[in-house]
Design a protein that fits this description.
mainly beta, two-stranded antiparallel sheet, elongated
Length: about 55
């Protein structure tokens, strides 16, 4: 009971006007709450395997 929880600032969420705002891109197949990981050559969902590759 004596331990304190350390809250880290997340780059995925922010609070604006008292409301939670999701900052990262979410997976179009899995829905809200599942974010896409940013790699140098693509964005990828670790849950379902969805990937987008930028046009070169």
């Amino acid at each position: 009971m004596g331990k304190h929880t350390v809250v880290k600032k997340s780059s995925k969420y922010s609070i604006q006007d008292g409301k939670l705002k999701r900052e990262g891109r979410t997976c179009p197949k899995c829905g809200a709450g599942v974010f896409l990981a940013k790699h140098k050559d693509r964005v990828h969902c670790g849950r379902c395997g969805y990937a987008e590759f930028p046009k070169q």
